[in-house]
Specification:
The chain is an alpha/beta fold. It folds into three domains: 194 residues, FAD/NAD(P)-binding domain (3-Layer(bba) Sandwich), CATH 3.50.50.60; 133 residues, 3-Layer(bba) Sandwich (FAD/NAD(P)-binding domain), CATH 3.50.50; 92 residues, Immunoglobulin-like (Sandwich). It contains eight helices and 29 strands. The chain has a five-stranded parallel sheet with strand order 6-3-2-10-21, covered by helices on one side. The longest helix is centred in the last third of the chain and has 19 residues. It is globular, with a radius of gyration of 22 Å. The protein starts with a strand and ends in a 5-residue tail after the last strand. 46% of the residues are buried.
Length: 422
């Protein structure tokens, strides 16, 4: 059985990005919005994130992941948005044609007016960080461990070493401890922590779990089950220092070694990807290099706060509605470039130049007492002070609409020392 139809917009992925984009498109006037999700429920990763810390910006409340997701799910259920669960998108073509499949309808072919990519991200695995050793049971990514404990009610292990100090790794250090496991320590190859400050305090310091900076796992021992790992200090080039090796007995190695935007469908559609973020190059309405295909949330760049994911999703949903309604008017193309101590900026280009633009970026290195500045053709148009900037914590800045009213050649975002504090 096959079904073909032409909705206004198809949103691929029903995590926080997909939910936000679908609602924004619907509220902007699109009548037929289709939300496609390969899982059996809405919410993406949020249902397994039972810790709090979500929604402090969007709702001005501190919520758990399921609570945050449920607020959007209830709105989707009341909105008339068509939801396709257990549905896998097989192909996205440059002409925006979407091919999907499920057990109820068989093959679905959709020719929407616009597409929003909201597939989220995936975890890096052991093989992507090249850890030598055997292939025993007990090596698991942090997100998978989170799902096993919080959703499936299973314990992956009882003597745990965590590699990587990203937020999921920090949260799982606490979660394992609360479930009675012994967490020997968290090992981080960089010389600074990879997670939010609040998670360092609440998940490690409050539970006396040690954090070993400038350390990594160099070997995994055990053939059937993890028996131990070798850890070592690393030098300035992140290479193990001979003579610093130490054997740590454990039955589980949890990997929290980074996230990768999920962009196989983007590649099939011919969407240009950014070399630093790994996600699509987008403009101020989150439109990609392929006309009518938009992207938002962690598929564009891995965000540290779900609130920022929602904000980009709302922009993408409204952008898709403008495109379908024929209201989009390009006035040129202005690059948005990273300046001093800025690794990347999202969006990477501006094309409409008729509205205020929110920018999101990460710094290259930690720095105290700084100013975050946005320059339009070399002239500062916005500036704010920050006590501290760190690579794990995304920074938000804005460009006033009036700063884009004339002929603009380029926008630069930079982080500079605060002269008054120097």
């Amino acid at each position: 059985m096959s079904r073909t139809w032409k909705p206004d917009v198809v949103v691929i992925g029903a995590g926080p990005a997909g939910l936000g984009a679908a609602l924004a498109a619907r509220e902007a006037g699109l009548r037929e919005v289709v939300l496609v999700e390969r899982d059996f429920e809405l919410g993406g990763i949020l249902p397994q994130c039972i810790h709090d810390g979500f929604g402090s910006i969007v709702f001005e409340q501190v919520l758990t992941g399921p609570e945050y997701a449920q607020r959007f799910i209830e709105r989707v259920e009341r909105s008339g948005i068509e939801v396709l669960l257990d549905t896998m998108v097989l192909e996205l073509r440059p002409d925006r044609r979407v091919v999907a499949v499920n057990s109820r309808d068989g093959v679905l072919e959709m020719e929407p007016g616009a597409v929003v990519l909201a597939m989220g991200c995936r975890e890096r695995t052991r093989h992507q960080v090249l850890i030598p050793g055997f292939r025993p049971a007990g090596v698991i990514c942090a997100g998978a461990a989170q799902r096993e404990i919080n959703i499936e009610g299973l314990m992956p292990g009882h003597r745990v070493v965590i590699l990587g100090s990203g937020d999921i790794g920090l949260i799982m250090a606490r979660r394992f401890t609360l479930e009675g496991a012994e967490v020997e320590g968290v090992y981080e190859i960089m010389d600074y922590p990879g997670g939010l400050t609040r998670n360092l305090v609440q998940c490690l310091h409050d539970f006396q779990i040690p954090l070993h900076l400038s350390h990594t796992v160099t070997f995994i021992h055990g053939r059937k089950r993890v028996e131990a790992v070798t850890v070592a200090r690393v030098d300035g080039n992140r290479k193990p220092v001979p003579g610093t090796e130490r054997l740590v007995e454990c039955d589980t190695l949890v990997l929290s070694v980074g996230l990768i935007p999920e962009n196989e469908l983007s590649k099939k559609a011919g969407v240009a990807l950014h070399p630093v973020t790994g996600g699509p190059v987008v403009d101020e309405l989150m439109e990609t290099s392929v006309e009518g295909i938009f992207a938002c949330g962690n598929v564009v760049s891995v965000f540290d706060l779900v609130d920022y994911v929602t904000f980009t999703a709302q922009v993408a949903g409204r952008g898709a509605a403008e495109f379908v309604g024929g209201r989009r008017r390009h006035r040129g193309e202005v690059p948005v470039k990273p300046g001093r101590n800025v690794r990347f900026v999202v969006p990477q280009r501006l094309r409409c130049l008729d509205r205020e633009v929110e920018l999101y970026f990460r710094v290259e290195r930690p720095e105290k007492s700084v100013q975050v500045r946005v320059l339009v053709d070399g002239k500062p148009v916005s500036s704010k002070k920050a006590r501290m900037v760190r690579p794990p914590e995304m920074v938000r800045a804005s460009i006033p609409a009036e700063a884009l009213s004339g002929q603009v050649r380029e926008v630069v975002v930079e982080v500079v020392p605060d002269e008054k504090e120097a």
